[in-house]
User: Fold these one by one.
Assistant:
Number 1:
Amino acid sequence: MTDIPKIELHLHLEGAAPPAFIRGLAQEKGVNLDGVFNEDGSYRFEGFTQFLRTYEAATAVLTGPEEFRRLTLAVLEQSAYQGVIYTEAFISPNFCGGGDLGAWREYVAAMEEAAAQAEREMGITLRGIVTCIRHEGPDAAKPDAICAAETKGDFVTGFGMGGDESMGVQGDFAYAFDLAREAELRLTTHAGEWGGAASVWQAVRDLKVERIGHGVQSIEDPALVDYLAEHEIALEVCPGSNVALGVAPDWKSHPVEKLRAAGVPVTISTDDPPFFHTTLTREYDMLADTFGWEDEIVRAVNITAAKAAFCDDATRDRLLKKLEPAS
Ligand code: ADE
Ligand code: ZN
């Protein structure tokens, strides 16, 4: 599947860091990352809470804009190699200056510079979705939304929320999402990964998002499935992540095919690929093996992703052209 052009809408920039990249930086900077890696060099964690802890521990080496410039390039290189032509990455002021707007501008400039280089050299386009982190609470989300609004432009196009879905409810973050909406940022939030169908309902009603990160637990509620289909709310589904973290017990029982068959706009992403030993190519290979997804379905899913992308229409048209089968 590497040769089919692919579009990824749900990728955490820090979570996509190759372990060797993080280890290299740790060595350069003399940072101790005990407990972050297994003996074979992969990221070490068991379950979602520990995953978030390892994820955040690994970011200790990402100390400034230059590190994020290098990270962005390393991640895009990895994605371009998998045939990805367009990526939306979650980027967070929490890891980039701690919510300070002046610092954040420097980080954004560094990531944008890397994105421009990757576009020139590898033909991959990157857009940034600024994310607040749910377990940091609603007050911490406000400076994140301000950072997002102040840097909205060609590169920063969206606002979202990741983190521990068991903390509070989506509506607690309405202030930050309202602020981002007023700045004309496009909106998504992690929902229905851990919080059930109720969390997805809250996301659409209380945060008025137009896409849902994961959203796979929507399958519990047929009325919600109908709603998502009818209102064309796209799901950023990451099956490999869901299986690795235990959201779904295995690929066979993952609801992605049921959701797609019900008319929900389903897109496919990797979330935090090295953590889950996956790539976007592997996701599609597994979907082909498990649910018989032929090339035609893969192409259709990527067209859905292009339509749901938080980009301008000229970029969208360019992506849709690239997705046309060669004749
Ligand atoms: N941050 C990185 N990966 C995440 C996930 N799968 N869910 C919530 N927050 C995340
Ligand atoms: Zn995610």
Note: The pocket of adenine (ligand 1) is lined by residues 12, 15, 55, 162-163, 190, 193, 241, 271-272 (CB under 6 Å).
Number 2:
Amino acid sequence: MRRPFIAANWKMNKTVSETQDFLSAFIPEVKEVKDVDIVIAPPFTSLAVAAEELSNTNIKLAAQNVFYEEKGAYTGEVSPLMLIDIGCKYVIVGHSERRQYFHETDEIVNRKVRAAKKAGLGVILCVGEDLEERETGKTFSVLEKGVDKGLSETDYEGIVIAYEPIWAIGTGRTATPEQAQEAHEFIRERLRLNYGKKADSICIIYGGSVTPDNIDSLMACKDLDGVLVGGASLKVESFVRIVRFNRL
Ligand code: PGA
């Protein structure tokens, strides 16, 4: 009932012309892929050109961040309505880099989730523990807080949860399929407590050093419905291989 969900998070990479170059090579390579939700999140400055390139394709557009107000005197911020207007279907909220460098708390993340959903955007909500939290046995309490607070006062529709252990992001140190499965199963249980059976329709995806070499074994995990890919989504060849993963 859940379709694989494979998303690229380009972070602060690619100019407008680099975005065009990537997409004109990538789109034909995945146009036959009908059974996977493919999502690309370029930087804000590339959204307009990406929306144009992706129209009438099987690839959806996402933003990497959003503010929680609709409009007004918030210099430098971008509203959910602006993202809808430019053609975004999803937005990534609460990425660990935003929590770490821009001091986003679970409360701020929740305001963003609610504002994005109200505007009609799907939300990729990121949660995950850092190394110290994992080593001191706090992984599950971090996940519980991230899910419960992040989704407070909101329903399940249009929600995707990205489990992203911070120690695995950009480090080349991927969670093992067992570690990922255990976290995903915990998140699924948490969602069931909040939403009952409807929780079973929510995709829970994994992020953190996903590559063409580990995608197949990750996707074989029972509760792992897809991936959020940083570094390996910047090259056409490697992201194509990830989208066209082998079902083991
Ligand atoms: P990475 O980033 O694939 O480069 O580890 C993943 C992410 O931060 O979403």
Note: The chain has one domain: 5-243.
